Amino acid sequence: MKEAFEPRVRRLWGDEVEDRFSWLEDPTSPEVRSFLEFENARVEVELAPLNNLKQQIFDEIKERVQETDLSVPIRKDQWEYYGRTEEGKQYGRHCRRLAAVDGGEPGPEIVILDENVLAGDSDYFDMGVFDISDDHRLCLYGIDVEGDEKYSLSLLDIEAGTTKTLPLTGVSSGSAWDNTGRSFLYLRPDETNRPAEVWHHVVGTNAADDSCVYIESDPQFFVGLAKERDDTFVHISLGSAVTDETRLIPADDLTVAPVVVRPRQFGIEYGIAHHTDSAGQSVFYLHTNLDAKNFRLLTAPEDAVLTGKFDIGEWTEVVPNRDDVTLGGLDVFADHLVLVERSNGLLQLRVKRFSDGEEHLIEQAEKVSTVYPGANPDARTTSFRYVYASMVTPTQVCSYDLNTRQRTVLKQTPVLGGFDSANYATERVWATAADGTKIPILMTWRRDRVEGPQPMVLYGYGSYEAAMDPNFSVSRLSLLDRGFTFAVAQVRGGGELGRSWYEAAKFEHKERSFTDFVACAREMISRGLTTPAQLGIRGGSAGGLLVGAAVNMAPELFGAVVAEVPFVDVVNTMIDTSQQLTQIEWDEWGNPLESEQIYRAMLSYSPYENVRDAPYPPMFVTTGINDPRVRFWEPAKWVLELRERTNSSAQILLKTEMGAGHFGSTGRYDAWRDEAEVLAFLIDRLTPTRFS
Q1: Active site residue 662
Q2: Which has the closest alpha carbon to 563: 614, 493, 620, 603?
Q3: Where does 199-306 have alpha helices with state H?
Q4: Which of 67, 125, 130, 617 sits most deeply, having the most CB atoms within 10 A of its CB?
Q5: pLDDT digits (tens, 9 = 90+) for 574-608
Q6: Active site residue 303
Q7: Whole-prediction pTM
Q8: What pLDDT sits at residue 648?
């Protein structure tokens, strides 16, 4: 087929570039599928010597996990909702029970949905919609068995146990019930699979009679749905990468026309939350970057907002912009605000009491840790639930009394097999980038590791203002217990150190993310913690771009590379407006169709177009054939280019999930096996004589 295929030629800004491997961009081609299946067979053969190690690591992960387990119940009205897993089952069960009354026992368990039954023998399963009606009678749920993020909706009568499959297929994730339980809103995508339309369905009516509530025509905006904690309004959230607009519908009547809170303005982001005080006065809180790089908090009366009488300049400022603290979000309760803040690269929670203005930070046990709000469906509560973790402390679900400041750990994720967090250490150190900027690196290791250079895995992401915060991983223990250090490079382009940190590595400055990552690798080597032969790097999606660009820049620095669903064909994807994310991504990467400067910048770092004649290290590259975010042909083309250009004999492997999408295997045992394979690859390549 390749011999007969006419390669695509990209003509842009005076360049003519032939894409020799563009024949891979036809997902319907039998030749393409045969190629991917051949590559999968090749992976099996090449990694066959690691089968015992893979099985050992899988067993280790499995033995550390409490397979039969229960999540902390979340109370809503008289019901407690929770999830349950069972040994041997790939997926969980969604359950509920009546809450205990006056110190009595809770009611018997009711299984709402069993994902194992719904998944059947599907290779892939995702429940993208799970929404209980406010009267607790009905459950709206949507499933995807292809990995293409298109869902089929069904409606379950919980008490009767009867399910009606709605003729609503190919819908997007997202929904919102009205307060009566008689109707709901859902989302439909456009031809690029972008969530673009809001529709209203009345329970018991024909779906063909559903009414369209809103259509977003701008391809750079995605549509989302959310309901206020106090059940007053449903939000239609319209967002691009850097711009927001919110429209409100009364949750009592979803047929009312949406009201625009503030019309979109390029570069202005905002979120809104409703609150009614003890005197019955209703206001909105607005969290925005308008005139505030690190965001501020404003408030205005409900009626003024809904009638459009207040311009945002007339809102009252509650929390000003701060140069050293980023306001990331908020939760509003009857007498308290909980602010999610980021200071010096770490998350923190600040409590403000309405009645007397008292405020304080919720103290945490470890200096380098992460904390964020948990599920808090009751607006009247004074018990705030949040999640805490560090690189050595398993995830905890905590309850915090907003008045007394009493903290209770409701559950810490069990880690079996004799795990003791005291055996592990964590630290944050700093590398120096080429321009003198200090780059934070999170590290964790086993305290009894051997002194001197040891194997290390350096992870990174560095895009979308996403912060790679310190968290705990059960599977990571299989590296640490073998003497590895695990490190996270918090490079520019992420959100760890505020908005300026993110903006410093965007558009024509994107290369800074990659040079930061290389600087972090060099720092680990210069400290004597590892050597190039012992240093592996790992990243997924935009993190795959990060490691792909880094290995092009300095292939001699790394002993192994893992790139999962990597975004590596940047220029060709960013000029293809038929792809789901291309136009919304222009606010992140720039538009090479309109700017030669952006085009030249992309061309300078896109991994696919910068492979060179060099000794590339062993590489393990993964993708999913149904991935709508990073199409499978990006990593496939990159692998072929790497194989042609490398002057080393190292393996460059491509594995494609033939029934999955961007997030890989969905069953937990399948996911553990995938992780065991990746870890076995890294362990073998970075310590070839010790554990193979």
Answers
A1: yes
A2: 620
A3: 302-306
A4: 617
A5: 999 999 889 999 999 999 999 999 999 999 999 99
A6: no
A7: 0.95
A8: 96
